[in-house]
Design a protein that fits this description.
This protein is of the alpha/beta class and about 400 residues long. It is about 40% helix and about 15% strand. The chain has 16 helices and seven strands. Strands 3-2-1-4-5-7-6 form a seven-stranded mixed beta sheet, sandwiched between helices. The chain is elongated and about 80 Å long.
Length: about 400
């Protein structure tokens, strides 16, 4: 079933009468006295025309014949071009039917819907009308449960939210990660970002760390917990601490942990720049995925310093992260395409990754890792969108 407003009926009718030049559809007349019965009759008349019945316009209007499951988003640069260039991939001209979730458990267990794929796709095509898109997006997000109940900070520890985290938001998320209504949308990132796929995370953690036997593991910026769950399953004898600055995401991760019956993880809300509730030099492996490029350079450097403090001698850092682009020309275009030409604290429309300029020109991750004392620093390219960073504490 699909629900359509009269304004959407008007848009559909205008499409028909402006595009159907080789078929007489003069009998397809949108009723001015509109109600369910008259609009149903209008669609019946439209469907008597085979050219309309078989059209993508009618399929889009009825919310059928499109799921978005063929979109691979950030799997490769080629696939991403389909997302950002409409001529390479046709999206529906009407949004599919929005899902309705009545409780938090549903947001964890239900499969992604075509509407949610559509919303994600349209974000990357919203340049020039971003405010309009964000209103549409936010109206939908507010129908999601918000994971607002429960203190998830470490006992006796105060979590300080840095100003940028509640000022400029990544991935077009209204209110950012602190808005609990965004939790499911970020959780659905597992179908879009390579290193949110648990199978791929497991493959590469096994490749680089499978022969190690860490006793204590830290997962920073855990979000819904993708990496933390993989680490806990790979190293069942290890203690895994997983932290994220956004409390709603930790609440969701704890619920998912219960569903998965994984007992060797502790999820906490914490700022990766200040994990003073954790003792120095007590971790064998620290992991993060897509974290350091989502903040100003100064905050990034503080987080790297904190990782170094927490690792024991011989401990290893593993980062699934946006690449540091060494070539200045390539770096310029990488920054422009992600920021839409605006610095993170400027006015104006900002792209999906507003802090990329800070990351590429300020943090310069490989250099920062070496400056704080890490050795054997490696950046291993995976795709245009991510590299694997490895570093060891002496």
């Amino acid at each position: 079933m699909i629900h359509r407003s009269y304004e959407e009926f008007q848009k559909f009718d205008n499409m028909l009468h402006s595009r159907w030049v080789f078929d007489d559809i003069s009998d397809v007349v949108l009723p001015e006295d509109h109600n369910v019965e008259t609009l149903h009759e209008y669609l019946k008349v439209a469907a008597t025309h085979e050219s309309i019945l078989k059209s993508t316009e009618l399929s889009d209007f009825l919310g059928i014949n499109w799921s978005g499951s063929d979109l691979k988003f950030m799997e490769s640069l080629t696939e991403f071009m389909k997302v950002v260039i409409p001529t390479l991939y046709r999206s529906p001209e009407f949004p599919p039917e929005p899902p309705v979730f009545v409780n938090e458990l549903d947001t964890i267990t239900c499969e992604e819907t075509p509407f949610e794929v559509y919303v994600y796709l349209e974000a990357f095509r919203a340049r020039g009308h971003l405010d309009e898109y964000l209103k549409f997006f936010n109206d939908f997000l507010n129908t999601y449960p918000d994971f607002s109940e429960g203190d998830v900070a470490p006992p006796g520890h105060t979590v300080v939210i840095p100003p940028h985290f509640d000022q400029t938001y990544v991935h077009f998320l209204p209110g950012g990660y602190l808005n609990g209504h965004t939790v499911r949308m970020s959780y659905l990132g597992k179908s879009k970002f390579n290193f949110l796929h648990e199978d791929l995370i497991r493959e590469y953690l096994t490749k680089y760390h499978g022969n190690s036997q860490p006793k204590r593991i830290l997962d920073i910026g855990t979000g819904p917990g993708f990496s933390a769950f993989v680490l806990a399953e790979m190293f069942p004898e290890a203690e895994v601490i997983a932290v994220d600055l956004a409390a709603p995401y930790i609440r969701m991760a704890r619920q998912w942990q219960t569903l998965r019956n994984i007992t060797n993880i502790q999820f906490y809300q914490a700022n990766g720049e200040d994990m003073s509730f954790l003792e120095s030099g007590t971790f064998d492996l620290i992991n993060y995925a897509y974290v350091l490029h989502e903040m100003p350079a100064e905050n990034c450097r503080r987080m790297v310093n904190e990782m170094y403090r927490l690792l024991g001698s011989g401990g290893v850092m593993n980062g699934f992260e946006v690449p540091y682009v060494a070539d200045p020309v390539e770096r310029f275009f990488y920054i422009e395409s992600n920021t839409w030409g605006h610095h993170w604290d400027d006015e104006g429309e900002k792209g999906p990754e507003p802090y990329i300029e800070e990351y590429e020109l300020g943090a310069e991750l490989t250099n920062t890792l070496e400056q704080v004392g890490f050795v054997d620093v490696q950046q291993i390219e995976y795709t245009y969108f991510e590299s694997i960073f490895l570093a060891t504490k002496k």
